[in-house]
Structures are given as C-alpha cells and as structure tokens.
UniProtKB/TrEMBL annotation:
SUPFAM superfamilies per UniProt: FabD/lysophospholipase-like
A single GO BP: lipid catabolic process
InterPro entries recorded: Acyl_Trfase/lysoPLipase, PNPLA_dom
Protein name: UPF0028 protein YchK
UniProt motif (GXSXG) ranges: 47-51
Residue numbers annotated as active site: S49 (nucleophile), D222 (proton acceptor)
Coiled-coil spans in chain: none
Amino acid sequence: MKDAFLTPDVLVLASGGTLGEAWMSGVLAGLEDATGHDFRTTESLVGTSAGSLVAAALVAGERPRRPRRQAALLGLPSGEQAGGVASETSTRLAAQLLPLPRSVVQSVAREAVRIAAVAATPLAPMALAAGSSGSSALRAALLGRTPGKDTSLEAMRDGIDRSGARWDGRLRVIAVDRGSGRRVVFGAPGAPEATVAAAVQASCSVPWIFAPVKIGDREYVDGGVWSNTNLDTAPAGRATRVLCLNPIMSLDIAMASAFGLLRAIAGSSAALETLALRSRGAKVRMIGPAHDIARVMGPNLMNAERREEVLAGGYAQGLEIGTGPG
C-alpha cells in the first residue's frame, strides 16, 4: 500500500532560492512518475518564496519540470527548455548574493536561539497562536533599516501573468508586510487584494537583495522572513493529509550562508507549525533534500549553475520515495 501522504490534500512548498525551486520541482515530478498522481489537482497549495513559484505553476496547469533525459522520454519540456512560470522565474532569482551586515546576522541569529528555546517549552503552541509579536517587531526593525537593492522582479511577475495563474480558492502565497513585520497570506479570506503575479513577486523579494513590492499602500517582502514553510497557514482539519517540501530542512544548508541565516528561525518555526496542524487533527509529513543532494546544493541556494544537477537529484529522490514501501 502506497504512502497516503504522496497524494496529499494540501501541498506546502517552502522557500529555498533557485536550487530549492529546482529540487521541489524534481521531487514532485519524480513522485508523479512513480505514483501516477497529478499534483495539479491538489486541493490546496501553500507557497513561500521559491515555493510560491512552484505552486503558481501548478495552479496555472503546468506539470513539474523533469530532468532532460526523463523529459525527452515523456515528450515534456526539461528543466532548461521549459518555458513555464517556475523555470523562467528561477533564472531571474539566480542573482549574486550580497553579504548581510554583521549586526543584522547577529540579530537574526539571536532571535533564532530565542525562538528555538520557546519551541522547547510547553507554551510553544500559545507562542505560535499569539503571532510572535516580539518577532514581528524585530523583523520590522531589521527590514526598515536595510532597504532592498534596486533589482526588479517585474519580468517574473509578467511571466506569471502570462501563465494564466489565478486565484481559484486553492492557492495561498506568503509574504511579509515590511512596515509591520507581520505575515500576510495572499489568497486567504480577508487578505489584501493582489494578483497572483504580484503576490508571488512579493513572496520572492528577498530583503537586502531585491526591492520590496508595493501592493496597495503597503510594501511586502519575502515570506521566508516569517517562516520558510508557513505550515500553520495550511487549510487543514481533522484527517487532512499535508505534505511539505522543505529545501532547507538540512541544518547545514539553513545555517551555512547569509541566505540561510535570513531563515535561521525556520527550523524552530516549522516545528511549532507542525504542532499547530497536528493539534487540529491533521497528518503532516515533511520531506527535505537527501544528504547527497543537500551537499550538491551547498550554502548558496541561488547558484544557477547547479540547477540541473539539483533538479535531477530531486527527481531521483521523488522516484525513490514514490516507489518505496507504503
């Protein structure tokens, strides 16, 4: 009997840069080819940063990209030849990373330690429910004094618009309000109005690298600043099957670079968020890169030169999981 998590009710796709996008695409493609499941039919999708690209592509009706050899056998576009949302826009994200100011790195690291300590206490679910107001204040302070580089992601937004990705009740895209430091779940009831393209652009706007995205009268940045998974936003109740692909589940990747330090809070947040979903009765499975793939990815998750290799590794991992024992 196959693992029921491989045909989930909710698919959560986390942040992870260019290589994270490639790995998630490969894993989904491998799972599809191993199980026959079509992830374009998933009931609900939650995407953060790179994960929002993959989620938007699925909503637009695009199949996950395959490595060149498998794509040729199936008559599908490969990683480099695909003209879809995730392929086109991941190239735009493959930018030269700027080093974070030392004071910012130290502040984020201290906050990660503090939240990790909270996660180990019986009050953890309450801390999550409270919305971590102290964390929001810190985020707002850091984001306010470190404006984004004047690098535009408008071409990415235009590509998503052309793909036909629209809000259809299934998609949720995570970003952070730069002014307040609070999380915003575009596509959820009560969220600010925005196109899918604008929401994904905001979710991918990594602070200190890309400029914030203005939607209405507010500025938004990368949703990974709040949490790299944002699992707790999944519309899940009792017996809901939630599958989360988390490219920086590996601690080595999460802590080895400035890009990873930006998400230093992610590990403890994911643990809290998993507890929150399970308290609702949902069943959660999280998958990260296999050890050999994590080593290929390395600390620079924006290294486009390794994208095809990571895509192939993700595909192989997906096949292995999909053909494994139930």
